[in-house]
């Protein structure tokens, strides 16, 4: 094959992908709407595509790039003298490292204590923290949120704190509903109990400061007493290519808790500040270039454009039948729940048919038995601004269509067959059989996903998780 044929084949593979630009994909991607940003990022990434960030002594430019990115973030997010940070591959790795460092600190403070340290986690905190608990052997203590505001309550955190608490997490904002947790109040409660507090600002950290307080949100960054670490992604509202994130802390000792160093083998001494050894420098270089070019004023313009689009969207939703906004959107994330008999799972399918990707989120039962409703997640970016009128028109049309449909019902036979199954004991073949029974036999996913999402909500959580892993297992098998 010629290089041109290879690239043509590669381009053809993306035919069925959702668009990464244009503002219609309202999850997963962050589009500035500026062609200059894309071109600059691509050129910077290409310039560093062969550089290995594993060893900054061999590639000192990487150390400069990382230092500049961390310094800019600390200046933006309340980092005082002595504050440090680490560039990671994404928000999940930043959250993983924060939990790892907290576990290291807890173990050092409790020598000989064989108990599992605990992670106090609002149910709305990102799933990355549950992954961290799984990987690093912490016990998750679920903290319910107010069912109306979807914000965690400081008193609930206070009641669950103990000597086993290694870390308390709050969100700025939360991914499911886009609301800002009471960071200062929770951090104060945690500090009084001697527990560190991490702020997950992966989405809002590069956006809120550039709005200059226009949203009326309370302080949330490292300047808040009791906040010990903070994560912020540059591949979200920093508009850099994936994946670049930062983990910041005001305490250099905290950072050492997630570093790994060994001279215990015959090869070169290995020192890694992140989970990976070899790290691609291309995304870092792209983030650096985009930051240098946009500057404070460029980011302010993009932040205001995205926020104004969000405000217009929320105002216009009052004219869409059968939907309501959940909570008080603090930034550019909006969650929609159904009213008057509208099922948002149907609404998601109707919007997909109209060329939009809105992300379904199933209902969730909290520890106290209250239920957070099924919602649709919308991420608004600067590229969405010009499309808000079209989005509202399509939402209204899709809502009227969804209101005519009966509620999605999972296959009762599968729900009945699932009762009593032990998810941990299911083999790959048994999971394949259950998925085939549900109509997910390895072929294309159904055009209408509402019944599938309804099935996930109807099954016991552990079994649903096992089947979802089975779906992705099938997707990732070689063709």
Description:
This protein is 40% helix and 14% strand. The radius of gyration is 23 Å and the shape is globular. The protein is built from 15 helices and 15 strands. It has helices spanning 3-13, 35-47, 60-76, 91-109, 128-136, 154-160, 183-192, 252-256, 282-316, 344-353, 388-403, 412-418, 428-437, 450-458, 461-475, and strands spanning 84-88, 118-122, 139-143, 165-171, 197-200, 227-233, 245-249, 260-262, 270-272, 323-325, 333-338, 359-361, 364-365, 371-372, 375-379. With 479 residues, it is of the alpha/beta class. The strands form four sheets. Strands 1-7-6-5-4-2-3 form a seven-stranded mixed beta sheet, sandwiched between helices. Strands 10-11-15-12 form a four-stranded antiparallel beta sheet, covered by helices on one side. It has a two-stranded antiparallel ribbon with strand order 8-9. Keywords: Lyase, Pyridoxal phosphate. It comes from Klenkia soli. The modification N6-(pyridoxal phosphate)lysine is found at residue 236.
What is the 3D form?
Answer: globular
The CA-CA distance between the termini, in Å, is 20 Å
Point out poorly predicted stretches: none
Give the radius of gyration: 23 Å
How many beta-strand segments?
Answer: 15
| Sheet with the most strands, sense and barrel status | 7 strands, mixed
CATH superfamily of one domain: Type I PLP-dependent aspartate aminotransferase-like (Major domain)
Give the helix/strand layout:
Elements: H1 3-13, H2 35-47, H3 60-76, E1 84-88, H4 91-109, E2 118-122, H5 128-136, E3 139-143, H6 154-160, E4 165-171, H7 183-192, E5 197-200, E6 227-233, E7 245-249, H8 252-256, E8 260-262, E9 270-272, H9 282-316, E10 323-325, E11 333-338, H10 344-353, E12 359-361, E13 364-365, E14 371-372, E15 375-379, H11 388-403, H12 412-418, H13 428-437, H14 450-458, H15 461-475
Parallel strand pairs: 2-3, 2-4, 4-5, 5-6
Antiparallel strand pairs: 1-7, 6-7, 8-9, 10-11, 11-15, 12-15, 13-14
Helix pairs in contact: 2-9, 3-9, 4-5, 6-7, 9-11, 10-11, 10-14, 13-15, 14-15
